[in-house]
Amino acid sequence: MRLHYVLNHGGTPESKLAEVEVHFEEGLLAGLKLVGCSVWRSKKGEAPTVLVPSRSYATAGGIRYFELLRASEEGTGPNDPAAKIMVRKFKDYIKDEYQRIEALPAEPAKEGRGAKVAAG
Predict the structure, then answer these.
(1) Per-residue pLDDT of the chain (120 residues; tens, 9 = 90+)
(2) What is the domain range of residue 85?
(3) N or C, where is the chain less crowded by C-beta within 10 Å?
(4) How far is CA 57 from the centre of its chain?
């Protein structure tokens, strides 16, 4: 598996820093990629925020979100502390790699909306 960051230099919306694609290199999913993860500038001026794909649904109390990234173990629900730790580790990895990439010297964009940068 490899992560590709599509940097959003000068793109819209301005608060989106990068899109993140998960490219699969081995096994049944080889040759496919998962899109929908993104890195956003924090409104509070803190470290960037990482968002993963989710689906919204309406309830009597308003709109809720069904997270698509969760633990694969049986009996592990979205509110299970172990599942939350696994998702947090994934988000932290994406954020840390983004910050490492941003610290590198700037390169000219090779695509219209930003440059693709791979992270192992």
Answers:
(1) 999 999 998 888 989 999 999 999 999 999 999 999 999 998 887 889 999 999 999 999 899 888 888 777 766 666 778 788 888 999 999 999 999 998 887 665 544 445 566 666
(2) 2-119
(3) C
(4) 21
